[in-house]
Amino acid sequence: MKRSNRLVLLVGVFLAVVAFVGIILISQGGTGSGTPPVATTGPVVIAAVDIPLSSTVKATDVKIETKDLTAISAGAFTDVSQVIGKIARTSLKAGAQVTADAFLSSSTLVHPVVPAGLRAISVQVDQVTGVGTVIQNGDYVDLVAGLTGDKFPVVTVNPTDNAITVVAGVSGTSVKVLLQGIQVIGTLLPPATAAAAGSGTSGDGSTPAQPGTALNGQLEIVILAVTPQQAEVIKYAQIDSTISLVLRSPDDFQDPTTGEAITPIPVQTTGVILKTLVDTYGVLPPEVIETVTPKGK
Hints:
Layout: H1 3-27, E1 41-47, E2 62-68, E3 119-126, E4 140-147, E5 155-157, E6 164-166, E7 174-188, H2 192-199, E8 219-226, H3 228-240, E9 242-247, H4 274-281
Antiparallel strand pairs: 1-2, 3-8, 4-7, 4-9, 5-6, 7-8
């Protein structure tokens, strides 16, 4: 065989090898640049059991599932460590994807889910009477009412004509915890733009270093789940007294061992009037000083 023929044969073999390698790369979807294939699925956190409102998420409450990216909800978590220990601000059904919305108390009120047998009633509070207006969906609160002296006037009755005279200078103020362990099932705050406008800005017009912490008179509507009797108590307190909501720890309503919801025993309180402060807490009443005016002066 002539040398030129052998050279042509070698070139042909080389080209055949190159073509074969190219076919393999194309069939594998690769271009030789090392670009990985595009993922079409991903992990998502799923509720393994029903997660009630206000419960603290445990490791046994959630699991990871792989789903098509098109089926994963916006804001869904991808690792269970991101949700364990958080307080659920909405109830979740088993099998539902766990998203960031489950742990946020929205300022836009949606229709509250009223537990069977209970009623929903709204209470308006401010930054002083509503724990800084930080009360959120799922929280538990106590309701304290304060009645001023004009509701409990001290009077004397003239035995001659039965005329009634109100005794001035006697405190009739009374304070009492009326209801305990009421669950919040909804809240409503002003829009973020309005809250920012109310809190003001810094001297250069920028946002304050700690927005939302200013005492700006912000109001909050809190929706409570109550019995019919409790609804009557709250309505009376709204009409004829001032009320405050006292924030409770969620641990009071959850068994530390099993994590199951429990109803704590109400704490018996005495209520407070001026005499209580004097007798029990040592508040000193004013000392009465008697003066004698000399005769003839």
